[in-house]
Structure formats: structure tokens, C-alpha cells
Design brief:
The chain is built from 3 helices and 2 strands; from the N terminus they run ββααα. It has 88 residues and is mainly alpha-helical. It has one domain (22-85). The protein has a two-stranded antiparallel ribbon with strand order 1-2. A hairpin with a 2-residue loop joins β1 (2-5) and β2. α1 (24-46) crosses α3 (66-85) and α2 (52-64) crosses α3. The two termini are 24 Å apart.
């Protein structure tokens, strides 16, 4: 899914959390920490900052998992946008 922002198509990401009461806040924190680490690893891959072994692992996942390939494309688009906007 995409949404229009300032006349440009931007990927839309939504997260759904299960609400079961106990420990919900902790689960959200863990999920967001894991998401940020995962996002950072993809970013490092795209910038050529990973070891050869880790880069190969990411490449294999891109070809094997469609959802993961889409995530990589989203991060790539963010990097491009940040470059054009002069942010990092």
C-alpha cells in the first residue's frame, strides 16, 4: 500500500498489536526495538556496511521471502528520500 505525501507516493506501513493485557507495553517495546534493529541491518546492507557473510544472508532472504524483499525496498526508498532531502 502507498499513500500520497506532498504529491509523492510513500509506502504505508501499519503495525497491529495483539491486546492481551499483561505485558502489552513490554511486548510493544520489544517489537519496536527489534524492528529498529532489523531496519538498521537492512540499511547497513544497502550501504555496503555488512560483512560478506551477513550480506549474503540478507541477499538470500531477499530472493526467498517476498515480504522481506518489500521491506528492503521500503528502506531503500527511505534512504533515497533522505538523500534528496539532505537528512540521514
Amino acid at each position: 500500500m502507498h499513500r500520497e505525501v506532498d504529491g509523492k507516493q510513500k509506502p504505508e506501513i501499519s503495525f497491529h498489536f495483539l491486546h492481551n493485557g499483561v505485558g502489552e507495553s513490554s511486548k510493544r517495546c520489544n517489537f519496536m526495538r527489534d524492528f529498529k534493529e532489523h531496519h538498521q541491518t537492512i540499511r547497513q546492507f544497502l550501504l555496503g556496511q555488512l560483512s560478506d557473510d551477513k550480506a549474503k544472508e540478507i541477499e538470500e532472504r531477499i530472493f526467498a521471502e517476498g515480504d522481506f524483499a518489500e521491506e528492503v525496498q521500503i528502506v531503500e526508498n527511505e534512504l533515497i528520500t533522505n538523500y534528496y532531502e539532505g537528512t540521514s
